[in-house]
């Protein structure tokens, strides 16, 4: 699972880089496989920087320094931030990292979408990345920051907190919560959101220089709230514009047990290994797999887990999870589609 955060400027004060760094690094314990930032200007243009590294490493990189210097302007309107705990889609491919974008909108997501293949087919949208979150990007690209977008995202199953921007809707933020936690804060100048309240407490406390030393204020001039569950909001320069129901999570939500730092080295080795396999996939030993729904036969790597692959929707499959084949002879078919 991941951590998302962001800020909307609706007053005269500019967004500070220090606030962005605290929001990103403050969510890093929720995911450190990749990190990213999207900045939207007054005219709607969106610029994105993302890398397959922890948030702390991104904010200390020369690429981040150059990005902030160029794109974080005094009148920048909105910023999205994402700390990724990768599940589906190798972070070595930057298309799989957040903010998700294919040249139009920008989307960050914490959660899981389980019917993404079905929604791509139903809505006749084009996949641009391996992740389940890519369907959210595709819907936002198609219908923008609108109530129709909230309605379409509401047909997803799984869970999520979602934030999105679109260049055709300057200054408007789409914010959705269904299942996963999301805390809000605001003052006269800014609207903030984050996966965790503790991160907002840190980010909303200004730094003060006193007697040649820097201190962080203990009593921020902000107010806090938890975002209502199963709802989508559209927030503009003057506050809430639209809201509509959006129920992605149909059951109880439980926060996952994370080993973000303890298993970091193991995960990175896994992603590197998968990248090597992808580059020489024809040389990997394969085994048969079976879709009990449409009775199709596939092949997957011999050491793979069946439930991590689906009946390849891009090759006339149904998108359902594959199973161990029945105890009858099979002819090896086309490749199944990786889902994790």
Keywords:
340 residues, alpha+beta, seven-stranded antiparallel sheet, 19 strands, 30% strand, globular
Outline the structure in words.
The chain has 340 residues and is of the alpha+beta class. The chain is built from 8 helices and 19 strands. Strands 3-2-4-1-9-8-12 form a 7-stranded antiparallel beta sheet, covered by helices on one side. A 5-stranded antiparallel beta sheet has the order 5-6-7-13-14, with helices on one face. Strand 2 (34-40) and strand 3 form a beta hairpin. It is globular, with a radius of gyration of 21 Å.
Topology:
Blueprint: E1 3-9, H1 17-26, E2 34-40, E3 46-51, H2 55-59, H3 62-71, E4 78-84, E5 106-113, H4 116-123, H5 134-143, H6 147-153, E6 158-165, E7 173-178, E8 183-186, E9 190-194, H7 197-203, E10 207-210, E11 213-216, E12 223-226, E13 231-236, E14 239-245, H8 264-279, E15 286-291, E16 296-301, E17 309-310, E18 334-335, E19 337-338
Parallel strand pairs: 16-18
Antiparallel strand pairs: 1-4, 1-9, 2-3, 2-4, 5-6, 6-7, 7-13, 8-9, 8-12, 10-11, 13-14, 15-16, 17-19
What is the CA-based Rg, rounded?
A: 21 Å
Largest sheet: 7 strands, antiparallel
Structural class: alpha+beta
Averaged pLDDT: 89
